[in-house]
Amino acid sequence: MKKLIVARHGKYGPGPYLNSAGKKQMKLLAESIRPSLSSKKDKIVVLTSSAERVKGSAKLISNLLDISTQEHKILQSGGPHDEDFPRYFAKEKLGISLYSHVIEKGKAWLINWTNNTINLLP
């Protein structure tokens, strides 16, 4: 893996499911992610927590990009890390710092550790 894209779920509510604005955000995000994907889609997986808004966001992105999804415990609230996942992963696995751990709904970070860069999408 040379790139990691960390996305926040789209807008949701009422209730735990994506609303129309959230679905639109995820469609725009998927299109902004598409150029970053390689042709080897079998190595690309969308990881998701069990929250409905997150699973809905992941499903929309994975369907639009024709890639698979997988639920992962590290993404659960109170998961096995002492800080939010993007900062934890960047620090522990990539050796780089994320100075801002706040990300808006419907946005994503593209973390490229070949050249240690982080870009906000879209």
CATH architecture: 3-Layer(aba) Sandwich
Residue windows where pLDDT falls under 50 for at least 5 positions = none
Task: Output the helix-strand order.
Answer: EHEHEHEE
- Predict the CATH topology: Rossmann fold
- The helix content is 25-40%
Task: Work out the helix count.
Answer: 3
> N-to-C terminal Cα separation, in Å?
21 Å
Radius of gyration: 14 Å
Helix and strand content put the structural class at: alpha+beta
Let me know the CATH homologous superfamily: Phosphoglycerate mutase-like
The top-level CATH class is Alpha Beta
**What topology, given as strand order, has the largest sheet?**
1-4-5
Q: Shape from CA axes?
A: globular
Specify the biggest β-sheet: 3 strands, antiparallel
Topology:
Blueprint: E1 3-7, H1 20-33, E2 45-48, H2 52-65, E3 68-71, H3 85-94, E4 108-112, E5 117-121
Parallel strand pairs: 2-3
Antiparallel strand pairs: 1-4, 4-5
Helix pairs in contact: 1-2
